[in-house]
TrEMBL record:
Keywords: Signal. InterPro entries: Phytase-like_dom. Pfam families: Phytase-like. It comes from the Bacteria. It comes from Igneacidithiobacillus copahuensis. PANTHER family: BLR7070 PROTEIN, PHYTASE-LIKE DOMAIN-CONTAINING PROTEIN. The keyword Disulfide bond does not apply. This is Esterase-like activity of phytase family protein. Residues 1-20 form the signal peptide.
Amino acid sequence: MRKSSLFAACLALYGMHASAQELAGEALRAPLDTVTVAGRELHLSIGPGSGLTHAHGSAWTDFYAVSDRGPNIPCDESGKVLGKEVCSKSEVIFPIPGYTPSIYPLLVQAGQVTLRGEPIPLHAANGQNFSGLPPELPKGEKPLNGQLQPLPFSPNGVDTECISALAQGGFWIGEEYGPSLLRVAANGVVLERLVPKGTAAYYQGSSVPVRAVLPPLLARRKLNRGFEGMALAPDQKLLFVALQSPLANPDDDTAKNSRIDRLITLHLDAEGNFAGMAGGYAVEFPRIEDFAPGEKQKDLKLSAMSAVDDHRVLLMLRAGNKVAVYLANLDGATRLIGTAWARPDTHPSLEEQNDLAKVGIQPLALQLLWESDDAFGKGLGKVEGMSLVDGKSLLFISDNDFGITGEKSTVWEYPLSDEAQRLLH
């Protein structure tokens, strides 16, 4: 379908952009700290926009958002912030090394977003706060403070990017470092951390239990492209989790060019705890020239998910100023767990495939629900969180990177057309 006719179809399905509303969100822009890095003064704000979920079992006004690892400046991007590059490519500056990744309870009502409680810091049962500093992983970053001095690695370090709230209280949170999954109590206590098989040794000294139960291939996540999308089925029995980008399988060059991402599902017990792996599936990204002309394939990212039922989820993809939402159906898709495609020694790998049908793989069926135009996508900002609201609208939240470059967190609500609502039901 040509882009013009595709866009027209999207407008018919989803409704005109004019129906979208940016909500007042001053509470999401509160000051955090003023710091000096390499002689440059930075005025930082809170950064709650890395993930978003409805508070299951509560009114549709109640949501939770999550911050990421805290204010940080990748050294290869330091020139944009500090006027010159001040450190090496493998290093990252953490202007507030003691920052604790936190959950933010949100109230969305009457056209505005406010905090409905104090932020909930992630911490261990012994009271030790979690850190945004990285664990000492084979493919990891080296942390520096604002004076460009080395910082210690942290076995409790997380780069939190997605969140789901359980109806009985508590959360599941996905993060990018391991990548790993955190089971979190309602008060922010991290009950356990699930990591890929073969990687538990990298978390020695952690103040929470670490279980290596996730597929080992996940450890080949591209740097800063770990778990980014998470959704909880309405019946609370299945957790959907997706990587932001294709795995570096077997190498980084593969990740740059591949269009094959992965989504996994986990069984949960009646208390919301991990009860075993349920499935693993291929997600075939659009070609970048069709999705966002002028961008590169490696720039296309899966940034958020929201569940419709126990086999359908909404996937939010973005690249440049383009944002699109797809309805993904697991029914009929090839289950990869237990196959050669789940093993690290399979060559060529799944990520190297150009034609999945030729190797007998059926990816998730994707149906485009809505896409922005470039101008409207730019207005959204760096959108990283999304929640389906009662099957009637979508709520988005953007990540402001703690205001390092002056960005502001924004929240937008998009009413779904009657046709789109019928499709989801």
